[in-house]
Amino acid sequence: MNLPSSWYVIARTAEIKKDQILPLTRLGQPLVLWRNPEGTLVVMDDRCPHRSARLSLGELKEGRLACPFHGFQFDPQGACQWVPELGRGAPKLCVKTYLTTEREGWVWMWWGTGEPSKEVPSWFTEVDSKFCTAYMKERWETHFTRSVENQLDYAHLPFVHRNSIGRFATSVQKYPELQMDEQRIKWFFRPADGSDPQTYIEFRFPNLWINRISEKYSITLAFVPVDDQHTELYLQNHRKFANIPGLNSVIDFFMILLNRRILNEDRRVVLTQEPIDVRLAQDEVLFPSDKAIQHFRKWLNSVHSQG
Ligand code: FES
Ligand SMILES: [Fe+2]
Prior knowledge:
alpha+beta, about 15% helix
């Protein structure tokens, strides 16, 4: 996918169990994810370099992934260490592997050309293990750029969400304070007494977002690019209120139901936006309330992209 070079969150750590082979398409690339015997994650192209079979249909053999077609075995670096008819390896035959790191429950993958940046974007310190966290995942049939822009857009609240959270939204005529740089876009309405805001929205490039509602409540999203037509939204609900052991799964169930309803209000409109890649929407006319979106588009165009 043609997106800026960066470390992208591509999955949750819990999705890749030991002894499991997981096929996943990310950034337009069919990938296969598995763990070596020490538990370290391996991400490689889901295509055998011999005659192109899907490696994800194969099996794990002593720390190698064996192709389902002719049994060639590949090590975690992608090198072929066993060709049955030769009775030895052919290490020059390689599957492409990707740089990954697992942190704070997420899998990050370097996508791009050139040297990977040493700094992997961090997860939000606002939410930690003291919160009750509920989780959901949803696939949207639209480009990554449209789903991100929707969460940078506060002016849609009283319209898209008129029957839910939009009822409490600040007037569209009032502009939020914006803090924007190469790492993040943060916006909030400063309290009348000038104090630091308790409620804010932050987007962290390239694909994380938090709605910090209060000290006790936040919602986070990871926008995971699947391919040019699909984005996977990983939503987490983090709360410190109503922590009632025995009832938490019921409370979480209803919190997720509410979040799903709000996301569906967004989805209904966002899926109608054409073209789906915002870089092709040169004729759109942005207004002052679209400042954050403008900044996001600048980032999309300014960072070296990989096709
Ligand atoms: S296609 Fe994979 S071993 Fe032949
Ligand atoms: Fe929305």
